[in-house]
Specification:
By secondary structure, this protein is an alpha+beta fold. Helices cover 46% and strands 28% of the residues.
Length: 643
C-alpha cells in the first residue's frame, strides 16, 4: 500500500514540475509577444477582422494569456464591435468573452459555445474560440460571435477560423526571422568593429578605427572613446578626427559626459525629443553636450573589464535619428564585447617600465586583496611562524625542581649510648638555647657510680690499713691500693660526665625541623646517632634554594648564573636568585642522575619555610626559538648516531 502511495506522490510531483515548466515557457513567449508592442495589437486586430469576415461574425475579441502567481490572466488586446455601444456594455461583453475562453482553456481545445438568441425568430448565436499556440504552448485566444442555424454549421465555421488562425504562426515566424536578422546584423557590426580595432598599428590608431567603424555602422554623427586614468577620463579618439585639442569646449563637454557615465557605472542615454527615451539616471553632462551640439542625442556606454569601468564610448546622433531599444541593445553588446580587447591592446602598447609596474600592482592585488582570504592567512601565518622561530631569540632557561634548605642548621646527636627516658619537644616547636630536648635513662650509670664509689672506699681503706702496719712490705701494697682507687676515681668521673650529659639541650635558638622521637621513648640509641635537626631563627635563619639539576643541563649552570623561582604554593610570586655553589657529585633521584646546586635568593619572602618545593629556571643563553624546540631531539640523535 505504501508503495502505491509513494508512486502516486511521485507522479503528482512530476505533473506539478511539468506544469511549472509550461508556465515558465508560456510566460517567456507572452513577454516576447508583449515586447512587440503595437505590432501584436495590429496583427490581432487584423486577424479578428479576417476571422469575423469569413464566419459572418458580429463581434470579436482577442486575448493574451499572462501567467500570474494565482494562475492565468486574460489580457484583452483587441475588440471589434461594430455598433456604437457605451463603455459599460463593451466591458460586459469582454467579461463574457473571458468566461467563455476560460472554459476552453481548461480543456485546452478550440470550442463552439452556444450563447443563445435574443428571440426565437432570430438564428441562434455561437461563440467560436480558437486557441493560438507558439511552440505547442497556448499564448493567445481569438473569439468571434456568429449566427447560424445549428451546432453543425457553427462547427464548420470554426474550422474556417482555424485556417485563418494559421496566419498567427506565419506572423510568429516573421517576427523570429526579423529578430534573427537583427541579431545577425548586431554580430556582424561587432565583428567589423573588432576587425577595425585589430587592424590599427598602435592603440591610438586602433581606437580611431573603431570609432570610425561604429559611426559607419550605426549612423551616428560622432563617436568618441575615452579612457579612465587616475579617477578621471582622458579623451583618446574621435571619429573622422586625427588630431583634436582636448582643451576646446567640445572636448571638455564630451569628457564630462564620459565622467558622468563612469561615476554611475551604467549606460547614460539622453534624448531631447519629448517622446524620446532618456535613462532614469543622471544626464546633466549629456544634456549640456546635447545643447552644445544643437540637440544631438547622446548615448554613453561604459567599457568594463572584469567588472571595472576602464573606458567610455560616447555616441552622438542627429536629432532626426530615432534611438530604438534594438539600437541601444546592439551598442551595449558591442561595448561589452569590445571592452576586453580594447583593454588588452591598451596594456600591451604601453612602455616596458609601465608594464612592469602595472604587473606588480596587479599581482599585488592577489596578495592583499579579498580573494582567497583563508589561503592567504594560512600562508602568511606559516611565513610569520618561520620568521618567528628563526629570528626570535628568547633566553633559554634550565628548568629544575628545588627545595628550601636553611643555610645554617644544627644537628643534635646522641651524646651517649642508652635508652631514651623522656622526649620534651617535637618537630615544628621553637626552642631557645639550653632548653631540654630529651633525657636518657641513667639508672644503669647510677648503679655503676654507686659500685665504683664502694670500690674506691674499699681501696682507700685497704691502703690506710697497710700504712698503719710497720712492715715495710705493706707500704708497696698500700701504694697499689691507692693507685687502684685513683683509677676508679677517673672511671667515676667518666660515669658522672655521662650522667651530666643524659639531658640533651638545644644548642641554639631555633625551630625543630626533624626528629620526632616520642615514639622512640624507652628504646636504645647508639652514641653519635643523629636525633634532631634545628634551624636557627632571626638574622641567621637565611634560606637557600637547593636545585636538583639534571645531568643533561648541568654544563649550562655556572656559579654566578642568575634565574628565578616560584614555589608550588605561590606560582605567580617569582623571585630572582644567584647560583652560589655546585656540588660536583651526581646522585640518583627519581631514576635520574642529578646534581645539587645551591642558590641564594635576592629577596626571600617572609612566609617561606624550609622544605617548601617549587620549580626554578636558570638563565643560560639566548637561542633561536626553533633551537628551544628541537635541541633535545638533535642532542639525542647526535648521541645515538655518534655525530
Amino acid at each position: 500500500m505504501s508503495t502505491i502511495v509513494e508512486h502516486n506522490s511521485e507522479q503528482q510531483r512530476e505533473r506539478e514540475r511539468q506544469q511549472q515548466q509550461q508556465a515558465i515557457t508560456r510566460s517567456r513567449l507572452v513577454a516576447r509577444l508583449l515586447a512587440a508592442g503595437p505590432d501584436i495589437r495590429e496583427f490581432m486586430n487584423d486577424l479578428l477582422t479576417v476571422q469575423a469576415i469569413v464566419v459572418n461574425g458580429t463581434e470579436a475579441a482577442g486575448f493574451l494569456l499572462e501567467p500570474t502567481d494565482t494562475g492565468i490572466q486574460l489580457r484583452n488586446i483587441a475588440h471589434i464591435r461594430p455598433d456604437g455601444s457605451d463603455e459599460q456594455t463593451r466591458r460586459a461583453a469582454l467579461q463574457a468573452f473571458s468566461e467563455i475562453v476560460g472554459e476552453c482553456l481548461k480543456q485546452g481545445k478550440d470550442g463552439v459555445i452556444d450563447v443563445g438568441a435574443p428571440n426565437e425568430s432570430i438564428e441562434p448565436q455561437f461563440c467560436l474560440v480558437t486557441l493560438l499556440r507558439d511552440e505547442n504552448n497556448i499564448v493567445a485566444a481569438s473569439c468571434v460571435i456568429t449566427r447560424c442555424r445549428d451546432q453543425e454549421r457553427a462547427q464548420q465555421r470554426l474550422e474556417t477560423m482555424r485556417l485563418v488562425a494559421g496566419y498567427f504562426d506565419l506572423w510568429l515566424l516573421k517576427r523570429q526571422n526579423e529578430q534573427v536578422l537583427q541579431t545577425t546584423q548586431r554580430h556582424q557590426d561587432v565583428l567589423q568593429a573588432a576587425a577595425a580595432f585589430a587592424n590599427g598599428e598602435t592603440f591610438n590608431a586602433a581606437a580611431a578605427n573603431v570609432c570610425n567603424e561604429i559611426v559607419t555602422r550605426t549612423g551616428a554623427s560622432r563617436v568618441s572613446l575615452g579612457w579612465v586614468k587616475w579617477n578621471s577620463v582622458k579623451l583618446l579618439a574621435m571619429s573622422h578626427t586625427e588630431e583634436f585639442d582636448r582643451r576646446q569646449e567640445l572636448s571638455v563637454a564630451i569628457v564630462k559626459a564620459m565622467e558622468e557615465c563612469v561615476d554611475q557605472g551604467e549606460l547614460v542615454q539622453y534624448d531631447p525629443d519629448p517622446g524620446g527615451h532618456t535613462t532614469n539616471n543622471i544626464t546633466r553632462a549629456a544634456m549640456a553636450l546635447s545643447r552644445l551640439e544643437n540637440g544631438n542625442k547622446i548615448v554613453s556606454l561604459p567599457l568594463r573589464y572584469r567588472n571595472q569601468v576602464v573606458g567610455v564610448l560616447t555616441l552622438e546622433y542627429p536629432p532626426s535619428r530615432a534611438l530604438t531599444p534594438e539600437l541601444t541593445t546592439s551598442l551595449a553588446v558591442t561595448a561589452e564585447v569590445m571592452a576586453p580587447q580594447i583593454y588588452d591592446r591598451y596594456e600591451n602598447d604601453r612602455w616596458l617600465v609601465v608594464k612592469i609596474g602595472k604587473s606588480i600592482a596587479h599581482n599585488s592585488k592577489y596578495l592583499i586583496g579579498p580573494r582567497h582570504t583563508l589561503a592567504k592567512v594560512i600562508f602568511l601565518g606559516i611565513i610569520g611562524l618561520v620568521l618567528l622561530v628563526t629570528l626570535w631569540r628568547p633566553m633559554y632557561r634550565v628548568a629544575a625542581p628545588f627545595q628550601f634548605v636553611p643555610e645554617n642548621k644544627r644537628l643534635v646527636s646522641s651524646p651517649v649510648a642508652g635508652k631514651i627516658e623522656k622526649v620534651f619537644v617535637r618537630p615544628g616547636q621553637q626552642v631557645t638555647a639550653g632548653t631540654p630536648l630529651l633525657v636518657f635513662d641513667t639508672n644503669r650509670l647510677q648503679e655503676q657510680r654507686e659500685k665504683i664509689l664502694l670500690d674506691i672506699a674499699a681501696e682507700q681503706a685497704s691502703a690506710t690499713e697497710k700504712l698503719n702496719n710497720d712492715d715495710p712490705r705493706d707500704d708497696a701494697q698500700a701504694q697499689q691500693h691507692r693507685l687502684k682507687a685513683q683509677s676508679l676515681s677517673r672511671e667515676l668521673n667518666l660515669i658522672e660526665y655521662d650522667i651530666s650529659r643524659a639531658t640533651v639541650t638545644a644548642p641554639i635558638d631555633g625551630t625543630i625541623l626533624k626528629g620526632d622521637l616520642v615514639e622512640r621513648e624507652k628504646s636504645e640509641v647508639k652514641e653519635g646517632e643523629q636525633l634532631m635537626e634545628i634551624a636557627p631563627i632571626g638574622s641567621s635563619a637565611r634560606l637557600l634554594a637547593e636545585l636538583r639539576v639534571n645531568e643533561r643541563d648541568i654544563q649550562r649552570v655556572k656559579v654566578g648564573s642568575t634565574g628565578s623561582l616560584a614555589t608550588t604554593s605561590a606560582p605567580n610570586d617569582k623571585r630572582s636568585f644567584t647560583i652560589s655553589r655546585i656540588v660536583p657529585l651526581g646522585e640518583a633521584k627519581d631514576a635520574k642522575n642529578v646534581f645539587r646546586v645551591y642558590a641564594t635568593i635576592d629577596q626571600p619572602a617572609p612566609e617561606w619555610q624550609p622544605g617548601q618545593e617549587g620549580e626554578a629556571r636558570v638563565d643560560w643563553e639566548k637561542k633561536p626559538a626553533i633551537w628551544h624546540v628541537t635541541h633535545r631531539l638533535w642532542e639525542w640523535i647526535r648521541l645515538k648516531l655518534w655525530i
